[in-house]
Task: inverse folding
């Protein structure tokens, strides 16, 4: 891995009451490289800005994470270069489904992550928005 991950952990250990499997850490140290700052990604197509036709939190999260992966790759990186995620959800009851899907995309990556429950997102049909930061090594 290109970055130093401090105090890695898995959410199945820190949240045993929830069915989660996310590789995260408490801090990430980067040196040099190119920082990719992404706007919050929503469940919509990057080319057309059309929303996906689903109100399922897992399906929406798949699209969000696919968008993040696509943007990182377009910048010349890969998912292992993701260092931070901020997850915004509109209903705490969707947290497990959203984090389970997110975990599929960050397996072995260990980014830092903050999760927030918000009253609403920019469009009422959106259940999740995730902003990401990646640092692509030199």
Result:
């Amino acid at each position: 891995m290109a970055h130093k991950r401090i105090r890695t952990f898995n959410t199945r250990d820190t949240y045993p009451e929830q069915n989660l499997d996310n590789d995260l850490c408490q801090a990430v140290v980067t040196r040099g490289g190119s920082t990719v700052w992404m706007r919050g990604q929503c469940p919509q197509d990057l080319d057309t800005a059309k929303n996906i036709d689903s109100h399922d939190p897992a399906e929406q999260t798949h699209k969000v994470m696919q968008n993040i992966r696509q943007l990182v790759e377009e910048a010349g990186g890969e998912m292992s270069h993701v260092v931070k995620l901020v997850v915004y959800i509109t209903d705490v009851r969707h947290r497990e489904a959203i984090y389970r899907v997110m975990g599929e995309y960050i397996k072995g990556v260990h980014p830092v992550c903050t999760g927030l429950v918000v009253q609403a997102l920019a469009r009422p049909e959106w259940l999740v928005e995730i902003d990401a930061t990646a640092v692509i090594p030199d």
User: Anything to note?
Assistant: The mean pLDDT is 95. The first strand starts at residue 4 and ends at 10.
